[in-house]
Structure formats: structure tokens, C-alpha cells
Specification:
- The chain is of the alpha+beta class.
- A 5-stranded antiparallel β-sheet has the order 1-2-3-6-7. Strands 4-5-8 form a 3-stranded antiparallel β-sheet.
- The chain has a single domain, classed as Peptide deformylase (Peptide Deformylase, Alpha-Beta Complex), CATH 3.90.45.
- The longest helix has 16 residues.
- Bound molecules: zinc ion (ZN).
- The site of zinc ion has 4 residues, from helix 3.
């Protein structure tokens, strides 16, 4: 799947709609999104980044230092967040080569649907919570550069 890029790209700036149909097409889309994220060495991906303004994110969930697993969250909604916040560096597949420091909640509770439409709740911490907050922002047309403290840094060269 090709990645939408650019700070002013209208697809990346639009508020995405809730998913209402949990069918085979959605299942395939989620699978494709997960594969695209891994192929591009991303840690998370939101549907608008692949051209669809629907409330869907995938994340490479870190189980521990060595293991990770792709999780998909449909209609994710942050229902609780820690008072504690943390600053950390972020980048984005849609803004290649740009990095900057963003403050996020240390931990969050997310309510979402799985691929079958079942309601689920997940508690995320640290890095996993950061990725989810970054991806959920995409669903509201917000890019990390909107929240960056100070200047964004341009990578000298792409990996
Ligand atoms: Zn992003």
C-alpha cells in the first residue's frame, strides 16, 4: 500500500469516520495495513496514511525488548489517561526524515473494536502508549509536528 505523505496532504488532515461494517473487506484491509507497516519498518500506522479516512490503526506492540506483535484497533478511543506524561522523540512514515520531541501520556486505557466488531479494552504503557496516541491523532487529522516542542529535526539521510 502506498503511503500518503506531506504536512498539508488533505487526506492526512481530515477527521476520519467510524467503522460500521465488520466484513471480509475490513479483515483484508487490516492484514494489508499490518504488512505495510512492517515492510516500511514502521511501529504504527493509521488508515489515513494509506488513503482511507476510517478510524483504524495498527501498532507493533512491544511485548518485551525482543518480542513484538501486530495489533489492530478499530474505532480506538482513549477513555482514561495517566496524570504522568513523558517527552520522547517521534517520527512518522508520512513525514519522512522529520523527527521531534512530543509529550504524551505515560499510560492510557483504550476502548476499541476488534476485527469482528467486539468491544475491547486495552491498557498501554510507555512506548506502546506513545504509538497509540500518535496513531489516534492521525484519525483526527493531527500530525506529530503539530505537537512538537521546539524545532523538528531533519534527518541528514534516510536509512
Ligand atoms: Zn504518523
Amino acid at each position: 500500500m502506498p503511503i500518503e505523505t506531506g504536512r498539508k496532504n488533505p487526506i492526512l488532515r481530515k477527521k476520519s469516520k467510524k467503522v460500521v461494517k465488520f466484513d471480509k473487506a475490513l479483515k483484508k484491509f487490516l492484514k494489508d495495513m499490518g504488512e505495510t507497516m512492517l515492510k516500511k519498518d514502521g511501529v504504527g500506522l493509521a488508515a489515513p496514511q494509506v488513503g482511507l479516512n476510517q478510524r483504524i490503526i495498527v501498532e507493533n506492540f512491544q511485548l518485551n525488548a525482543k518480542k513484538s506483535r501486530v495489533i489492530t484497533l478499530v474505532n480506538p478511543e482513549i477513555i482514561d489517561a495517566s496524570i504522568a506524561c513523558e517527552a520522547g522523540e517521534e517520527g512518522c512514515l508520512s513525514l519522512p526524515g522529520e523527527y521531534g520531541v512530543v509529550t504524551r501520556y505515560r499510560s492510557i486505557t483504550v476502548k476499541f473494536h476488534d476485527e469482528k466488531g467486539n468491544q475491547r479494552v486495552l491498557e498501554l504503557e510507555g512506548w506502546n502508549a506513545r504509538i497509540a496516541q500518535h496513531e489516534i491523532d492521525h484519525l483526527d487529522g493531527i500530525l506529530f509536528v503539530d505537537k512538537v516542542e521546539g524545532e523538528t529535526r531533519k534527518a541528514e539521510k534516510e536509512k
